[in-house]
Write the structure tokens for this entry.
Amino acid sequence: MIYKFKNHIPVIHESSFVHPQAAVTGNVIIGKDCYIGPGAAIRGDWGEIILEDGVNVQENCTVHMFPGKSIVLKTGAHVGHGAIIHGANLGENCLIGMNSVIMDDAEIGDECIVGAMTFVKAETKIPRRSLVIGNPAKIIKEVSDEMIAWKTAGTRLYQQLPADCHDSLEAVEPLRERPEHRPEQEDFYKTLNEFKHGNE
């Protein structure tokens, strides 16, 4: 659902896909090839939210802020299932792990990886290429070229997903029995270990 709020109508590039069960409200600008999953809430009621090109905000994520703030999720930012971005800015090509919470005025640098269920306190500044985990968040090491290449490959799938959804997503009635010739699922992604060994 796309909602006008106090004369602000969301701006969403036609190449992006917002699931019908997501809610995008008010002063929100979504660039090219972005994916917004079902259950996601992007609330630009109290400030501007900008998603640059190629950002994905997955299922059941929340993007919001305190009144008077504006935030940017920069190009290629990847927000995993159930994460909360509250008044924080995300750098280019970063990954926010599932069920993480990034609090107000935090700054996540370019190409950072934030592990699942990490809590980043308000006003925390995370330098570029940091691997961050824990509650409260701690930097444990630098993100390697190999790790960021794997992350980038995963995000590329989400950047293709809007076009796939526009082409093939359809509300249907379920089948009641498994068909004899059920289509094979495409295998197009490598785990980090497979990625590492395939690039040695």
Observations:
- The longest strand covers residues 41-51.
- The radius of gyration is 18 Å.
